[in-house]
Amino acid sequence: MKIRIVKSGKEVHVPRDLNTETFIAEGMWEEVKETPAQQPTGEATWGLHDPDRDGMSQDSKLAVTASCSVCGTKMVFIPKPSKVALAACGMWHCGKREAIPDAIGNEFIRRGGGQPFPVFTSAGGAGVAGGGFLKDLTPKR
Ligand SMILES: [Zn+2]
Question: How much distance in Å is there from the Cα of 79 to the middle of ligand 1?
Fold first, then answer.
């Protein structure tokens, strides 16, 4: 803890123990309360990144995006399209964790989540990550 020696005005850090308590009780030292740094308190902006709509790379996948204009944190989530997988995603920023909002999560699930990225093997062929998984993810349009 931080104390101020009353007589000299000098401030030093000392262990919080019986001696310190005694000096404070005797009025020789006084505790200096340190104010914690002010935490920024931004609210994340959530959305879905749709590579079809944006005309981005064909390798792009439908993703949940989040950003905070206060702390500048940006995140992209591409979980499996399930409540459990979505619940495991969260953005830590401004000293707190924000979960994916239900409206965004439900829309992500409804649209089948993101398509797996192609996997290029040393044999030269292009496969797809999580083959069996792909069937469930194919968008139904
Ligand atoms: Zn933030």
Answer: 22
